[in-house]
Amino acid sequence: MDAGVTSDMTTDPKSVPPLLSLNASDLIAEGSQRWVYRHPADRTKLVKVLRPMPETTSRAKLATWTEAHFPNIRRRWARKEYQEYLRMMLAADPAEFHSPITHMFGFTMTDKGLGCLTEAVTNDNGLGPTLDHLIKSKSFTRADLTLFNDCVARLDRYDIRAGDMTPRNFVFGHRDYAGTPGLRECVLVDGFGDVHAIPIRSLSRWANRIGMADNCRRLAQRTGLRWDAETRQFHLT
User: So where are the chain's domains?
Assistant: First the structure.
C-alpha cells in the first residue's frame, strides 16, 4: 500500500462533522441546565443537550460553583434519567405496561454536544401543552384532570423515581406509534430519575412513595389543584 492510499484512509477526528446539526429555530425549551430541540429530521423526537457552563450563570451560586469544580455532577442528569428509564423497562410487563414517562432512544453527538433522544408528545398544532400552560391559561378541564391523575397513578404503580415533578414537565398530547398518533394522554417528559445527593428514593418502594407524595403536595401548591393524600389523586378546587 503506497503512502497516498494510507493518507486517504486516515481521518482527522477534528474534521468529522457531528452526527446531528441542531437548528436554532427548533429550540423549544430552555431549562437551567439543558436545551431541548425538535429533531431536525424526525418530528416525533426531541433532542436534549447540556447547556455550556457560561450559559448557566443565572443558577444558584453554590450550584454553579459546585458544577464548575466537579464537572461530573453536570452529567448526572443523563445517567440518572436513562438509568431510571432502563430500570422501568426491564421491570415492565408488556401485557399491561403503559409508560407514564417519555420513551428514550439513546444518545447522539450534535453540534451542541452530546444529545439524548426522546419522544415528542404532540397535538394537531405541534408540541402538546404543558400542565403549567393549561393552568395559567385557565384551559385545564376535567378531562385533562383525568389524564393527569392517570399519569400520576402509573408513576405510583411502576414505582418511578420522579425527582422534579414541576408543572412544566407534564405534557398533554399524543405519542407516535409506528406513524399513527396514539390516544391523548398526559406524560412526564422530564424530571425523572433519583438525582438527589443521597438517593433515598432508590432504597425502597416505601421511601419512593413518601417522596412522591411530597412532590405531589408541592405540585398542588404550584397549580392550585388539591392533592388527596389518601387516594393519591388530584382534584379541582
Answer: 13-235
pLDDT digits 0-9 by tens, 66-116 = 555 555 666 666 788 889 999 999 999 988 999 999 999 999 999 998 899
Cα 211 to Cα 1, 92, 122, 196, distances in angstroms? 64, 22, 29, 11
Fold annotation for 13-235: Transferase(Phosphotransferase); domain 1 (1.10.510)
Q: Which residues of 206-234 are buried (b: 16+ CB within 10 A; e: fewer)?
A: eebeebbeebbeebbeebebebeeeebbb
Give per-residue pLDDT as tens, 120-145: 999 988 899 999 999 999 999 999 99
pTM: 0.84
